[in-house]
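worker-3 :: picked DUF3800 domain-containing protein
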Amino acid sequence: MSKHFLFIDDSGSKDWETPYSRTFIDVPPVRNEQNLNFWRRDYFILAGLHISTDLMITLNPQINQLKRDIFGTKHIEIKSVWMRNPDKCKKIYLDPFKISEDDLRKFTEKWYKVFENNRSDIQLQVFVLDKRFYKNKRSVYTPLQMLVQVLFDRVELHPSRQCTIVFDQMDREIKSIKHRHGEILKISNKEVDLGSYQKKYSHYPPRFEISRNSNFLQLADTVAYNVFRQFVDYGDYWENKEANTLKTYSFFERIADNFYSKNGRIAGIGIIKVPDQSKILWGRKKLTQKIPT
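worker-3 :: tokens ->
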């Protein structure tokens, strides 16, 4: 059994829903309500949560107790998209468990404390695909394949690269070796190589689990959704060379100190955007300061 795990969840569409057009690169749609669906279709996110087995053993009962304190049961799945949508929130959380919005706010506060109280021990590594830039590869590779290849390569640069990688279930059957799971397994096994710069991988064969059964996949879901919202809402800031600070989605800011970094640098280390057009070295300090070049 490995001493470290990497839990992976995704956000955004795994398909090429965003049409390719050079215009979308040269003159991108304004980020407003009218163009919201374009930007939602444009980004695909894979979010990874590095954690040690020892910390998992400590945190899992604490998270279960937190769920019991608010919902009366540990058998509840926490998904950010349900928590943020008022109708879904009412239907899935408030009404069935007879809790108030204030109760849910208290839960959310403690849920984020799991990140904030373990800033050094829960490290995040997130991969962001901007589909606007890809034309020729659309008929050959899926967005999932492209980003999984980047993920496996970059995990090799992490201190806990010899880890067990657990993906949120994507296919109907957990043990499926076809479809989405098959795409991931073939890249991991080097049966498909999309341009890897690693001769071999150190991680154990990937596993797939149902997110409702894993507190740590649910935490990874929180990361994936918040990074997705960050780029949908403020993605233009990431590559704006004139920007001295990064405007942030509020819940993204709450996990910012958990991103994996080197010498204070997050960009290209803890948040890997594909493609990276700017090379701005956003730093760790809540991602609000640029590191001088």
